[in-house]
Specification:
This protein is an alpha+beta fold and 41 residues long. It has one helix at 13-25, and strands spanning 26-31, 34-39.
Amino acid sequence: MKYFTPEEIQPSERTLNIIRQVAYSYRPVDKDGQLQSIFVN
């Protein structure tokens, strides 16, 4: 498995913040035995 190293390009802080916002607002919901994705504000 390859990991980020200081010599490689790393994502910007802005990109990381967008990923965090999506991750915090994502919720899986079990409806009739199937998982569905919803996003909450």
